[in-house]
Amino acid sequence: MTKTAKPANFNLPERETIIGYKLRRAQLLVFQDFLHTFARMKLRPAEFSVLAMIARTPGLKQTEIAEALGIKRANFVPMIHALEERALVERRPSRQDRRANALHLTAEGTKFVTKIRRRHDRLESDLTEKLGGPTNRDLLLSLLRKLA
Amino acid sequence: MTKTAKPANFNLPERETIIGYKLRRAQLLVFQDFLHTFARMKLRPAEFSVLAMIARTPGLKQTEIAEALGIKRANFVPMIHALEERALVERRPSRQDRRANALHLTAEGTKFVTKIRRRHDRLESDLTEKLGGPTNRDLLLSLLRKLA
DNA sequence: TATTGTTATACTCTATAACTATA
DNA sequence: TATAGTTATAGAGTATAACAATA
To answer: Residue A103 half-sphere exposure, CB side, CA atoms within 13 Å?
Structure first.
């Protein structure tokens, strides 16, 4: 096992994509888990994030939420419309800016968020268990943060 | 800071999706990196994986490759067709099973794979550097494996 | 002039059903 | 009967351009 000094290069994979490929597969599995768990509530990951964000900070504009979540504002329109039709979200005209809509949860939306948070917390703790405990989860999150 | 014993439950996030969300964002960034790097060569992540797999194990059937990579065989058809039109891949009728196509690289395809591997290795080592070195990369991969 | 929400549109990815020719 | 490759098609997700109302 001679370890000849390499010119500032790491051990490289011979053949396959490694990091990107494994990252994608893991992400797909976690999302499939999410989709299965929330299928009955007709909730997609992006919708969960939107509802959670409105719950945390009511009154934000559509553009603010869309941008924070990496959603194009054009694509955000039908999504927020669907949530409004389900009576979970309300679009109130902003007083400071009459172009904008301030987003709020309805009473039903607030109850719904409580419910999906409970279920999501269970999903997270299942994943944490899979990872080998909260220390490993935090380790994973810190590594993922380095990629951003 | 009283740490009352919790009933076999972990520290849970109060509001947002954490693992799934961060996993997705990291994966998107890595893929954007890939797409940017390989834009000039007109190569998508899935095509890279397919070429790498044919290079490693020539003669595999379409279904075998598609299944191993999580691609529906129906969607695999136009993809392999495009690679064949670019004269990178050859579909040879299998002798053992006249229904099947044995996939092989052309001479040009072999040269192409050598080129994209070099570029991909650089991408991987950039990511490894971002992660803080090969130890951290291996740590990330082992954590991702636990999720599968 | 720039921004907010909106519509229309297109492109990629993914998923299913059904066909043909072989096995 | 079942399988390999194929076709057609439909649904998500994502991207850009352009418009009206307002800033």
So the answer is: 27
β-strands A101-105, A89-93: how paired? Answer: antiparallel
Consecutive H or E run containing B32: helix B19-37
Strand D close residues, chain A 69-88, CB < 7 angstroms: 70-72, 74-75
Search chain A and give the residue with CA nearest B136: A143
d(CA A17, CA A79): 34
Which pLDDT tens digit goes with each residue over A48-102? Answer: 999 999 999 999 999 999 999 999 999 999 999 999 999 999 999 999 999 999 9
Report pTM. Answer: 0.89
Taking the C-alpha atoms of residue B86 and residue B71, their distance in angstroms, rounded to an integer, is: 20
CA distance A68 to chain B (A): 12
Min CA distance, A41 vs chain B (Å)?
16
DSSP B95: S
Are the C-beta atoms of residues B126 and B36 closer than 8 Å to each other?
A: no
**Residue-by-residue DSSP string for chain A:** ---PPPSS--PPPSSS--HHHHHHHHHHHHHHHHHHHTTTTT--HHHHHHHHHHHHSTT-BHHHHHHHTT--HHHHHHHHHHHHHTTSEEEEEPSS-TT-EEEEE-HHHHHHHHHHHHHHHHHHHHHHHHHTSHHHHHHHHHHHHHH-
